[in-house]
Amino acid sequence: MAPRLPHVDRCRALRAGAVAAVVLALLAWWLVPFGGETSPSGRMSFATGVPTGVYAKYGALLQEDLARDLPELEVRLRESQGSLDNLRQLTAGKADFTLATADSVATYRASGREGARSLRACARLYDDYMQLVVEKKSTVGSARDLKGKRVGVGTDESGVQLITRRLLRAAGVDFDKDITPVRVGIDQMPGLLEKGDIDAFFWSGGLPTNAVQTLGRRMEIRLVQLGDLIAPLHALGGNTRYYRAAVMPADAYPELRSTQAVKTIAVANLLVTMEHADPDLTERITRSVIHSRDRIGVKVHAAQKVDLRTAVFTDPLPLHAGARRYYLSVKP
User: Fold this and answer.
1) Is the peptide bond before 316 cis (omega within 30 degrees of 0)?
2) At what angle do helices 102-110 and 159-170 cross, to 10 degrees?
3) Is residue 122 scored above 70 in pLDDT?
């Protein structure tokens, strides 16, 4: 039979045991992911854009970050024709998250399509800049000069074509009568311009866009100012309030060897999901998007504009509950 410990020794032993239990509990808490979270698992689809566009490049880089941050989650990328097609895929259940411009989101919600009212935002990301590209020797000096021209206008389900139609209307150019619209995306428009099959093309994307950079290395091109259209564009009313005056710096495309900034029009991009998306997953993805800014920004310069202070301004969409939870957790 073991000897009985003196009363004082028993108390010390009990206290030591309690302290050890507390230390072990704290250690266990520390080893669990922040907030007691478990890593989301399963599959998630992310709709991006055409292969040579900024959406596609951004999506591929974000996929890499999510593989690191959420190793149990399989992220699949889906190509699309652009913002409107992205929203269609999202509301149809073919994608779980996507990117879309604010004007496209507002237009889609106003359309009354099924699921449109259930769209929710995770973050405001970077701005798209409207770019009108022509040969350097072209006589086109504004959108008003496009009458009679063959113009790349983006695909029918793209945000590019949406804003192009509005810009041409603001310029007094009839989309269907005054130009020959060529309905293709940024994956085809540069090649058509190089071959002389079109006279100009519109593109809405972050700066710089790889397809425009590549074209600028192969032939002499320039960007046409669109700044003279901001007032008549806003006068059209409706969802044109999402467009703002902007300037593309002279060094946006070093390949063009331009010495002058170009006035144009910009619109914000949003990270979008559905109201029923899992709040834990949405919170973690929003966190990864914000934290990945610097790494993605090295290759997609536009992503450097992602900012925690402005990410919550997601008009016309309310924030998803999971995204809101993330922003509250990091609020000073």
Assistant:
1) yes
2) 90
3) yes
Calculate the CA 187 to chain-centre distance. Answer: 18
Cβ-count burial 206-229 (b if 16+ within 10 Å, e if not) = bbbbbbbbebbeeeebbbbbbbeb
Measured CA to CA, the distance from residue 193 to residue 29 in angstroms comes to 60
What is the pLDDT, as a whole number, of residue 53? 86
Which residue is it, tokens 């230390």?
23
Answer yes or no: are the C-beta atoms of 282 and 321 closer than 8 Å: yes
Q: What is the model's pLDDT at position 300?
A: 83
- Measured in whole angstroms, the distance separating CA 89 from the mean position of its chain's CA atoms is 15
Of 179, 270, 178, 171, nearest to 230 (Cα)?
171
For residue range 184-194, list pLDDT tens digits in order.
Answer: 999 999 999 99
Name the pTM for this structure.
Answer: 0.85
What is the per-residue pLDDT for 52? 83
Query: Looking at residues 246-275, what average pLDDT do you find?
Result: 95
Which amino acid type is present at position 318? P
Q: Are 299 and 127 in contact (CB under 8 A)?
A: no
Nearest to 208, CA basis, from 293, 128, 267: 128
Amino acid at 212: V
